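User: Hey, my collaborator sent me this sequence without any context and asked if I could get a structure. I don't really work with proteins. Can you help?
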Amino acid sequence: MKTFKEFIAEVNKTTIEKKRQSKIKSKSISPNLELEKDEFDRYPNSRELRNKAKRSTVKTLSPSETRRLTNTDAPDIEPGAKGRRKVRQTLFLLIGFAAAYWAYRVKGVFWIQVAKFSLIISIFTLLLPFISFIGKDVKGNRNWIEFAGFTLQPSEFAKFGLILWCALQLRNFDFHTEGKKKIISLLPAFVIVEAIILIQKDLGTALLILLIFSGMVFISGAPAKWFISLLILGIAIGSAFVFSSTYRMNRFGALFDPFDEKYYKFSGWQPAHSIMGMASGGLWGSGLGASKQKWSNLAEAHTDFIFSVIGEELGLLGTLMVLGLYTSLIYAIIRIALKTKDNFSRYATAAVACWFIAQVTINIGSAISLIPVIGVTLPLISYGGSSLLANLLAIGFVLSVARRTPEIAFGIKQRQLRKLQP
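Assistant: No problem. I've predicted the 3D structure and written it out in structure-token form, which is a compact way to encode the shape of the chain:
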């Protein structure tokens, strides 16, 4: 059984070997940086290796380039890719703000009209990735469409579409009079949407849809046993998918000990380095842009593991701040749902709260290795135009509900008047 010290030494050896073999231009770095294998014995401490690399680096490099080359085993990145990502995300952010403002200003009757067709629209958009000339396969998931150089994930918008349709069906629902019939009438729509997403092999979104739908069933006043039965059904389906693939079984096994030799260099690589990154951040973090794990060790550092990068760069205080912001947002959404008198708005707003709770929990749970990694973004923070646009559209809808609720609107006006008073 290896000691922790021996394990870390082996990790350092692997990292330096990758760095030695990577293609580094001679004009950017001196040949002395390519450390020979015997350097592992002379410099067992990773800090000494980094210091040696820094001393051998040409002084004309900028601080950010030096940190990237000496502290990481950065992969070859396509020139201009980082800049294009920034432009695309900024563009989606601007479109998202515009969509949120539009959703905030439209009348409530409009949303009811949209809800009548939202299920059909959602199913139609979910089928678009199966069309050969616009569908795109990303890492085995057939859930993307591409046009004009941009990629979109229809399943992100299908969440909101399903929420609106279910809220419309539950608007005049009375459990004591209609009982099981109304809830059962929602199941075919849920099953169709869930089946399409599972065919696309997007387990993360499928789990989110299940949790959102379960939350709406619970909010409608259904007995707890129904809610529990739905969750058990979801667990059974999820277990069947896990045990049907060796790859998924390994990812599930890595959940319990990602540092195990059996999993570490394979399915446990990302969870292990996610934990290592957050642990190295300490209380205050290493500083913005100074993360080491985000270079190659975390393949999805800008999406699925953005919380780990936050923990490494901003420390425990940074992660607590992010959790505090999410708590405030979800609390505000729940308060709006409780205060509104319109049943359609209440169900839809409460479902948006379930959406954010589920997505934040799954993403952070994956980052700290409490649940298996299934590829769910962190709302409003992770890179991804589809997720950002859908999240902002949902928030715009919630703000629209708040604007139309007399009690909330009156409270806002009173607060503004108090600020104007001397």
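In plain terms: The first strand starts at residue 135 and ends at 138. You can pass these tokens on to your collaborator as they are.
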